[in-house]
Specification:
Blueprint lengths: L1 H20 L3 H12 L6 H17 L6 H7 L3 H14 L2 H20 L8 H18 L3 H8 L4 H25 L5 H24 L5 H24 L1
Helix pairs in contact: 1-2, 1-10, 2-3, 2-6, 2-11, 3-9, 3-10, 4-7, 5-7, 5-9, 6-11, 7-8, 8-9
Length: 236
């Protein structure tokens, strides 16, 4: 029971963070889920990653960067295929290390505020990398979020919402076709939907009241701590 409660609390935090800054469910939840119940990775969080953007788009859908999506989204398909190959061939321990490293690198890039130009090459590259990391670890946001981190908050949230929803569908279809998607993933995802709704409602209540800087620091602290714990466990 305590495992379910901890997973739900983690998803509340992740959904709230994503509702505020555009991403968070995967970055916050993946290390914890991998630690507590690795058999649910990446399927359950991909279902969560599909549901959260849909809720976001209900309220924010007027500032989407369709041009950028036209270059990044199609490239998730080959990235998803490569990720599927890794799921079938790489050990659970190695996937745990991958999750930790992806999150820590994302935190490092965000702390240093690396400004990457948004063009066809970077969008396509981010699409491939995101497809790989999303299918293997449920963390597909950082590669594309790095490109959009200096855009307007509404553009970041709405563009990433479309990207995450479509990307989650790609990964789920690929995992199901290869037989790597379990019925338990769907059941646990359905059980956790109330936690997702609570997180989104919290984000709506806080949006506009909290400075972006403090929210960003909170995201980095949670992600870095979770990833460091997962990295230590995987190495041990």
């Amino acid at each position: 029971m305590w495992v379910v409660a901890l997973l739900a609390a983690t998803l509340v935090v992740g959904a709230a963070v994503q509702g505020l800054v555009g991403l968070g469910v995967g970055m916050v939840s993946a290390p914890v889920v991998t630690l507590l119940q690795p058999s649910l990775m990446p399927g359950m969080l991909l279902f969560m990653g599909l549901a959260t953007p849909v809720v976001t788009l209900v309220h924010e859908h007027h500032d989407i960067d369709w041009r950028g999506l036209a270059w990044s989204l199609p490239m998730r398909i080959p990235g998803t295929a490569l990720g599927l190959l890794l799921v079938a061939t790489v050990s659970e321990r190695s996937l745990g290390l991958t999750v930790a490293i992806v999150v820590l690198l994302s935190v490092l890039l965000t702390v240093r505020s690396v400004r990457v130009p948004v063009n066809r090459l970077t969008l396509a590259t981010a699409g491939v990398v995101s497809g790989i990391t999303s299918t293997t670890t449920s963390i597909g946001g950082p590669p594309i979020a790095v490109l959009y981190q200096h855009e307007r908050p509404s553009r970041i949230r709405s563009t990433l919402a479309i990207y995450f929803a479509a990307g989650a569908v790609f990964s789920l279809v690929a995992l199901a076709a290869a037989g790597h998607l379990a019925v338990a993933d769907v059941g646990v995802a359905a059980l956790m939907l109330p936690a997702l709704v609570v997180g989104v409602l919290i984000a709506r209540a806080l949006r506009g009241r909290m400075p972006a800087g403090s929210i960003r620091v909170g995201v980095l602290v949670v992600c870095a701590a979770s990833a460091a714990l997962l990295l230590a466990r995987s190495v041990a």
